[in-house]
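DATA CLASS: polypeptide
GOAL: derive structure tokens

***
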Amino acid sequence: MKKKVFVSGCYDLLHSGHVAFFKEASSYGDLHVGIGSDKTVEELKGRLTINSELERLYMVKAIRYVTDAFINSGNGIMDFEEQLKVLQPDYFVVNEDGYSPKKKELCKELGIELVVLNRIPSSGLPERSTTSLRNGNKSQLPYRIDLAGTWIDQVYVSKYAPGWAITLSLEPVIEYNERCGMSTSTRNAAKKIWPYTLPLEKPEKLAEILFRYENKPGNEFVSGAQDAIGICMPGLVRHYYDNDYWPKKIESIHTEEILCWLEEHLYMVLLWPRKQGLELMHNTEINKTNVTQLAMASEAVWNAILAKDLQAFASAFLKSFKAQTTMFPAMLNNEINEVIASYKNEALAWKLAGAGGGGYLILVSEKPIKDAIKIKIRRKNTGI
């Protein structure tokens, strides 16, 4: 009997990249496609689909490489779980940005081989992704990752000790999921001001506009400035907080050699979206000692990057994450610790993106990490 193959995804704005993926996946056997429901896509991506689930199902079924297709009955990034158990395929095929430890764990449990493919366009065709097509291949709004000093942009933290937050602005080479530590809430606010791209203005000015827009007078909660700065200011940026919501000073690095070095040693792995209702302020230990440790680690991260000293960078990166999780222990749980433990033989250091509780795991490594996502740092526009 021919082998059974399973893939799962949104498949909105169906394009040649999807067809190339289906073609390669079908080389392993009869291809069965699970399609995310409209509700699931909205929850994960924070947007409505262009085509409804029934339209997407109709189009996917029409592709000659597809044996069968159906709407996944679950929700979240594991919305296909029940279908996978019923289908019992021989292979579960994903692209590298669709890999997650949860999928690997489920496949191992069910005796299914997980195959991870690279995105390679069909011969003679350009590389395609839904992310690029949604806005007519125009440059899109960036994301950001926090490298060190996370939480120092909140007054209830920096009042104990001043320090730097360090952020990287990322090109949207993939569509990062909501509630995963990639500052998607601030990015969604930015879309209301600038629907497609950032205007050609001074990046620091744009960051301040976005910060003020998101934090209107009377808001009970103040969103940290690091999100707006990380989205609007390209390259590697650090910002200094001292008992205030906006930084006292901002410094940035655009040296190509340093940015390429970071791209070579930073990787990301999707865990799962942070659960609704997670109380990150539970049992906090925010005090002068712990905040000082956070600030010192951030300073060490910056200096190690400038020196391109990988071992020092990894050591300081871990110290910054330890300081974060000491102050906010709800960032971690047993599931996350298990995933971190699985990478300790491959990675030199690790931390959770954003506030934790799930999301993306950021890894520092000397060598490429199999199946992990590579980052693309946004470069400075020479006209600004």
In short: Residues 288-307 form the longest helix (20 residues).
